[in-house]
Recover the amino acids of this structure.
């Protein structure tokens, strides 16, 4: 068979093809399983070595050439020759979840995988749960750490932290236990780019017979590593909360400057991420657990802060402004 | 509180490390150093002293003590011996020693009121205080140094000292403000009237002025609660009241007054000290093994750390100095050991626990599910404030934040509708929702709102979608203008047009969770063909479509769907056209069988007074 002959015929036919189907037929005729060119390639085995090399090479060149021609002359199935894929996409209507929901889910999922159960707690609380049972006595200056919203009559208040949920849970459940409590909290204070009158915390509590500070550090490290999806460095430093002793502040080494100090971490090299500590024996006393037997850690993470870091939102108030132009980006 | 580097240096013979180094070490072991600022030839540390350490660390000496432990530097002693040159004493009466456990005083004669020495003025300014005169300045200086609030009276204007509750009386402070006192407050009085609000503010009349020759120094200790309440009631917070309300060590007054005496040029007289019930150091039982148990690692020099903090150890009993009222239990000692040793190099080790996975709570499951359904149906989630404005209905607060953030919301729609209106400048179609708490009886609610014309049936469809997603199928909509959403016997919410072209729904999410089913069972698909017949009914305008549909369904179990495909109104009548879909699971339906059901349906509809178009 003559390769030149095949070439001539095939080129002619491709040129004069009118639609998609015709083109497919031509492709089949020459390049298909039983196509003319395919036959030649298959019969190579019967030729001498020199012939094999020569014909083989030419056949392959021709095959690639024909495939190029066919591809260049692409038809749509409908037969239109010009099809513009750059025309803008159709707008598919879909809604968007709030960045706080997205971050909350991620936090919940990570802690669930670490064995924590997700618990809900009331936003309207009594003084007992928000303060007294957390070892913050009435008329103690430590109460000034939390600026409080009171409901009329001063019998109830809006929880200033998610910690009261620790008390509710331990009143009803015996250790060992590990829970997280994500939820809305309230502070009566002037608002600015990093303060809001309502915002979100995630309380964490793990109690067992041997749960210690070293365990706490490992859990937090793992959490931040999974949340930011990269290796992290954290450090603990002393702090004070009446319901934990010892109390810690958890710092995360700044990703941007790796601890050298930059504008993101206001030159500190570290970002303050959460307050924590070992549950105070007085708290165990309030929920009638034996502090000689049980010990553990508690922490409070700011969800808004995590969302702001993750999405580079520089003003907390934007999270509650509900501007559709922001929400649609998530 | 602000601390001066030079001031701190004055307690050490050796040169202190650089300010940055001190800042870093204090942050990791004691308190967060928020800023370090250069000020003239000094550096100012702004240190966030935690409330538990107010008694010892709202003072330069207290911070110097921390530095001395952390850098292993020898700290100078500050308890000077005073050579008393006269015997002048004043009569001091304390009405109740519980309110004033200690009152220490001293007369100094022949003083000269003038400007302070430069280093005193510099350090006061560095710490944010304004120099006044040499007497007042050193009193402040010693407060910054030791923490003990001090006061100096003009001795010639005071005949005696009585520590008593105030009567209903007026008092003019050194700040020239007039304060109305009452019996809840403690005062220092002479034989006639109050000369100071105890622990809060000195009086104008007995204050130091240029003519003052002899002075009376006061270093006292007061009940923290009384000071706190009086300061709150008078809305008057001073450096003194802030310190006293945290509870100070009564053993501090003598050191402080001697230090103050040392800094004043004059003839010091005999120390006068009313201290009948001495505070004695607390003893705590301490099991050293608890350190490793709670922290998770061994600290070899635990005992040395406690000693360096001034504690005495005898067997398993630790005696805590009286200037550390924050240390009352074993865990407080463990914290001291932990922080001085340092947490920053703590290893991390995952806890060893038994696997005991817990099921997700229903609310977590269903909140996620509903949010996902609404999102895919085109709804965008919002997070609104829990507060509504003064004009709107809300639960009243004792301390409302502002006119705009006044009461607590009782419906999510109040704020959601506002958000729709605000965003209407950016979009013509808007679909927003929120899941959040309302108050009064605290409840979780779901609300959605749509902007646009005739969105009522759209929202109805959305609610069907949500409810079906939760496995709820027996939903009904009742009412005329506002539609109530009824599932079984429970009304769970409503849909309405809240404003022109803003349609909204609100559903009690807690009821929804109770009704929701997380299981779904497969129903076999019929192998036999379905048949469709149309029927057209003419009814009065105010007849509900549901009435007609119910009548149709009633006639056969073989009707698997009734679909309203056309509706139009004419005069006071409307025409409804339905596709009726028949199908059996067991056989192919005969035409005659369907015809006979259709006949029954027509008869049924007509007996209800509906006209069937044939």
């Amino acid at each position: 068979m003559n390769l030149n002959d095949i070439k001539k015929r095939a080129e002619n036919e491709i040129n004069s093809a009118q639609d998609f189907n015709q083109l497919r037929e031509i492709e089949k005729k020459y390049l298909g399983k039983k196509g003319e060119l395919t036959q030649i390639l298959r019969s190579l085995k019967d030729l001498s070595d020199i012939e094999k090399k020569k014909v083989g090479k030419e056949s392959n060149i021709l095959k690639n050439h024909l495939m190029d021609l066919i591809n260049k002359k692409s038809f749509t199935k409908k037969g239109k020759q010009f099809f513009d894929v750059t025309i803008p996409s159709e707008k598919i209507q879909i809604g968007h979840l709030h960045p706080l929901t997205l971050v909350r889910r991620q936090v919940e999922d990570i802690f669930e995988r670490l064995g924590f159960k997700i618990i809900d707690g009331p936003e309207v609380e009594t003084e007992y749960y928000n303060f007294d049972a957390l070892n913050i006595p009435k008329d103690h200056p430590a109460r000034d750490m939390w600026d409080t919203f009171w409901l009329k009559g001063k019998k109830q208040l809006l929880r200033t932290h998610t910690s009261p949920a620790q008390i509710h849970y331990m009143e009803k459940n015996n250790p060992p236990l590990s829970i997280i409590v994500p939820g809305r909290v309230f502070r009566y204070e002037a608002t600015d780019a990093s303060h809001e009158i309502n915002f979100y915390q995630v309380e964490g509590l793990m109690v067992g017979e041997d749960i210690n500070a070293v365990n706490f550090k490992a859990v937090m490290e793992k959490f931040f590593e999974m949340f930011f999806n990269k290796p992290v460095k954290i450090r603990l430093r002393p702090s004070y909360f009446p319901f934990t002793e010892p109390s810690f502040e958890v710092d995360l080494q700044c990703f941007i400057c790796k601890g050298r100090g930059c504008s993101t971490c206001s030159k500190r090299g570290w970002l303050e991420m959460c307050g924590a500590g070992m549950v105070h024996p007085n708290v165990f006393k309030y929920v009638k657990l034996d502090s000689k037997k049980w010990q553990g850690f508690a922490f409070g993470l700011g969800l808004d802060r995590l969302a702001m870091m993750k999405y580079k939102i520089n003003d907390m108030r934007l999270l509650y402004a509900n501007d559709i132009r922001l929400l649609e980006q998530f | 509180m602000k601390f001066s580097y030079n001031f701190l240096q004055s307690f050490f013979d050796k040169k202190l490390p650089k300010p940055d180094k001190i800042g870093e070490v204090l942050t990791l072991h004691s308190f967060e150093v928020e800023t370090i600022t250069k000020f003239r030839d000094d550096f100012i540390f702004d240190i966030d002293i935690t409330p538990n350490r107010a008694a010892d660390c709202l003072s330069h000496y207290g911070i110097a003590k921390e530095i001395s432990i952390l850098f292993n530097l020898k700290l100078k002693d500050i308890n000077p011996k005073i050579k008393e040159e006269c015997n002048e004493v004043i009569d001091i009466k304390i009405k109740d020693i519980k309110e004033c456990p200690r009152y220490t005083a001293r007369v100094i004669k022949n003083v000269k009121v003038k400007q302070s020495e430069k280093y005193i003025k510099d350090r006061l300014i560095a710490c944010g205080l304004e120099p006044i005169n040499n007497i007042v300045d050193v009193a402040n200086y010693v407060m910054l140094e030791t923490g003990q609030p001090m006061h100096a009276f003009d001795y010639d204007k005071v005949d005696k000292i009585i520590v008593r509750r105030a009567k209903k009386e007026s008092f003019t402070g050194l700040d020239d403000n007039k304060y109305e006192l009452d019996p809840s407050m403690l005062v220092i009085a002479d034989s006639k009237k109050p000369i100071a609000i105890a622990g809060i503010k000195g009086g104008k009349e007995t204050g130091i002025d240029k003519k003052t020759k002899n002075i009376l120094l006061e270093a006292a200790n007061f009940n923290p609660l009384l000071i706190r309440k009086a300061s709150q009631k008078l809305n008057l917070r001073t450096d003194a009241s802030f310190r006293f309300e945290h509870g100070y060590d009564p053993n501090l007054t003598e050191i402080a007054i001697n230090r103050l005496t040392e800094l004043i040029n004059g003839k010091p007289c005999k120390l006068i000290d009313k201290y009948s019930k001495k505070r004695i150091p607390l003893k705590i039982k301490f099991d050293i093994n608890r350190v490793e148990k709670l922290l998770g690692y061994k600290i070899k020099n635990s005992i040395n750390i406690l000693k360096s903090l001034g504690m005495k150890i005898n067997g398993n009993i630790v005696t805590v100095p009286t200037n550390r009222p924050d240390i009352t239990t074993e865990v407080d000692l463990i914290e001291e050991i932990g922080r001085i040793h340092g947490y920053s190099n703590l290893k991390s080790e995952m806890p060893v626990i038994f696997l005991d996975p817990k099921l997700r709570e229903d609310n977590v499951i269903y909140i996620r599910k509903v949010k996902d359904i609404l999102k895919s149906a085109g709804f965008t989630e919002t997070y609104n404030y829990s507060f509504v404005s003064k004009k709107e209905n809300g639960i009243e607060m004792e301390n409302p934040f502002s006119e705009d953030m006044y009461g607590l919301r009782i419906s999510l729609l109040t704020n959601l509708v506002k958000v729709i209106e605000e965003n209407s400048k950016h979009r013509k179609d808007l679909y927003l929702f929120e899941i959040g708490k309302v108050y009064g009886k605290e409840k979780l609610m779901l609300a959605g709102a749509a902007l646009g014309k005739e969105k009522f049936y759209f929202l109805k469809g959305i609610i069907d979608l949500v409810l079906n997603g939760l496995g709820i199928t027996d939903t009904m909509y009742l009412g005329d203008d506002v539609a109530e959403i009824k599932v079984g016997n429970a009304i769970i919410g409503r849909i309405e047009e809240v404003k022109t072209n803003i349609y909204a729904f609100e559903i009690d999410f807690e009821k929804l969770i109770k009704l929701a089913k997380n299981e779904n069972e497969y129903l076999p698909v019929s192998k036999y063909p379905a048949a469709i017949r149309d029927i057209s009914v003419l009814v009065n305008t105010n007849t509900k479509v549901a009435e007609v549909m119910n009548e149709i369904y009633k006639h056969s179990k073989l009707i698997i769907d009734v679909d309203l495909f056309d509706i139009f109104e004419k005069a006071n009548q409307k025409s409804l056209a339905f596709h009726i879909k028949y199908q059996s699971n067991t056989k192919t339906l005969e035409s005659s069988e369907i015809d006979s059901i259709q006949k029954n349906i027509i008869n049924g509809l007509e007996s209800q007074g509906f006209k069937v178009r044939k």
Chain B has five domains: 2-71, 92-274, 282-341, 362-515, 531-613. Chain B touches chain A through 85 residues (CB under 8 Å).
